[in-house]
Design goal:
Structural class: mainly alpha
Number of domains: 1
Strand content: under 5%
Distance between the termini: 6 Å
CATH architecture: Up-down Bundle
Number of strands: 0
Helix content: 55-70%
Number of helices: 9
CATH topology: Glycerol uptake facilitator protein
Length: 272
């Protein structure tokens, strides 16, 4: 029995993830508009995060011998900041998922219709691939050898074993992807709750949570928690990145589903 004497307000299945859904009206965005918003938001996330990793994380050494670049912290902030921007820009249109694991986690929690999940996921995958394709296009006009070096280095793809930044193995990658994706989805479900959430700060909290996740796990597997981000980088990262891609497609989704079903069972019970 809940200690709160007030029953929770029933969750509208169309409730958005990063921004609570507005009241239903004739002016509600069309499905095509929502899909464009999802593609745009995922484009921003992947272009901002992967682009920072490739262009700005390590630019070599300055004349005084100190490294030039934003490093792991800068990459983590880039991923978080893109989510903050996307949540406030496109969250009111589509919910601002930008991530197949979030879409499926929200559906498992009863916050999003299962029937709409496939369209969202396709839009997210398209947005991510467009982002890395633009990075490749920019690289074609970069310094001699820049693009081939980026691709031979994995193109900021996720990886384990020899392809982990810190040398962590498959088991470590599986654990962090399931655990951190579940944490991410649970935070989203909490801060966007219809009665307990806060729409004003939700996007900021979610972006900071993604930053924290990257600070933890970039050294382990270069941080996925998002199959769209992983696919977008791996298609340009070479055969090794593609061979390990399955881990970063499967286990973030597992974590998202665990969080969605778990949240629904533990935190959406009404008072009796």
């Amino acid at each position: 029995m809940s200690s709160d004497p007030r029953p929770d307000t029933p969750i509208d299945p169309t409730e958005l993830s990063h921004t609570p859904a507005p009241p239903a009206s004739a002016d509600a965005p069309a499905t095509s508009t929502k899909l464009i918003a999802e593609a745009a938001g995922t484009f921003l996330l992947v272009f901002g995060g992967v682009g920072t990793a490739l262009f700005a994380a390590n630019n070599g050494l300055a004349a005084n011998g100190f490294p030039v670049g934003v490093g792991y912290v800068g990459v983590a902030l880039a991923f978080g900041l893109t989510v903050v921007a996307g949540a406030y820009a496109w969250g009111p249109i589509s919910g601002g998922h930008f991530n197949p694991a979030i879409t499926l986690g929200l559906a498992a929690a009863g916050r999003f219709p299962w029937r709409d999940a496939l369209g969202y996921i396709i839009a997210q995958l398209v947005g991510g691939v467009l982002a890395t394709s633009v990075i490749v296009l920019i690289g074609l006009f970069g310094p001699d050898g820049w693009l081939s070096k980026a691709q031979s280095g994995g193109f900021a793809s996720n990886g384990f074993g020899a392809h982990s930044p810190g040398g962590f193995g498959l088991g470590a990658a599986i654990i962090v992807e399931v655990l951190l994706t579940a944490v991410f989805v649970l935070v989203i479900l909490g801060v966007t709750h219809a009665t307990r959430g806060n729409a004003t700060t939700a996007g900021l909290v979610i972006g900071l949570t993604l930053t924290l996740i990257h600070l933890i796990s970039i050294p382990i597997d270069n941080t996925s928690v998002n199959p769209a981000r992983s696919l977008a980088a791996a298609i340009y990262g070479g055969p090794d990145a593609l061979a390990q891609l399955w881990v970063f497609l499967v286990f973030p989704i597992v974590g998202g589903l665990i969080a969605g079903f778990g949240h629904r069972a533990l935190f959406e019970r009404t008072a009796r």
